[in-house]
Design goal:
single chain; 197 residues; alpha+beta; Lipocalin; eight-stranded antiparallel β-barrel; two-stranded antiparallel ribbon; 1 helix
């Protein structure tokens, strides 16, 4: 390195090294950018192959969450279990046992005490996300509750994770604020790992 007229003059070897390292840095930045762009495109183009038929059979659910009052304070704590049958064609039936603030919810029950006559519909997208609606039987002289769900399937559709997106209570047409989730596991024997290859 020499000084000439107050400016620093680098040797030819130093200039080449700086230019080479700049070219390498530019190449690595371009390579990283290409990887990020193609990775994002790949993630967006993944088609897991799920259909409404993917969600088929009996699923055991654990349910938990809260219903909020008009002032945002928890009005009801909900905890329960459910057994849901998905028919593979977009229809479901369900029985459940749900506690609200420590007391069982009212409604028609079977011999074991589970609520019955719950029906609904569902759809599954190719990326294994979906929506469902559960319609509850109406109390005498009223309308039944309606629950809408957003869900994702995992573990080769053996597991379902759901969030209540809307709850309309019995006798109402207005949704109430909720924070309720459920997780379900498919009943039955788990197939051998070779089944999925």
């Amino acid at each position: 390195m020499k000084k000439q007229n107050g400016e620093t003059i680098f040797s030819e070897k130093t200039r080449r090294a700086v230019m080479k390292s700049g070219a390498i840095a530019t190449f690595l930045a371009a390579l990283t950018l290409m990887a990020l762009i193609s990775g994002t495109a790949l993630a967006q183009s993944i088609d897991s192959g799920c259909t409404t038929n993917t969600l088929y059979g009996e699923y055991a659910f654990r349910i938990s969450g809260q219903i909020y009052g008009p002032n945002g304070v928890v009005a009801q704590q909900r905890d329960g279990v459910a057994m849901t049958h998905f028919d593979g064609a977009g229809h479901l039936t369900q029985v459940d046992w749900v506690m609200s603030n420590g007391f069982p919810l009212p409604g028609p029950t079977d011999k074991a005490g589970f609520h019955t006559s719950e029906t609904g519909k569902y759809t599954v997208s190719s990326d294994c996300t979906g929506t469902a609606e559960i319609d509850f039987p109406a109390p005498p002289g009223s309308t039944g509750a309606v629950i809408n769900l957003m869900f994702v399937l995992s573990n080769h559709a053996r597991t379902i994770h759901a969030i209540v997106s809307q709850l309309i209570p019995p006798g109402s047409t207005t949704a109430v604020p909720v924070s309720i989730h459920s997780d379900g596991e498919k009943l039955g024997r788990v197939p051998d790992a070779d089944f999925y290859d």
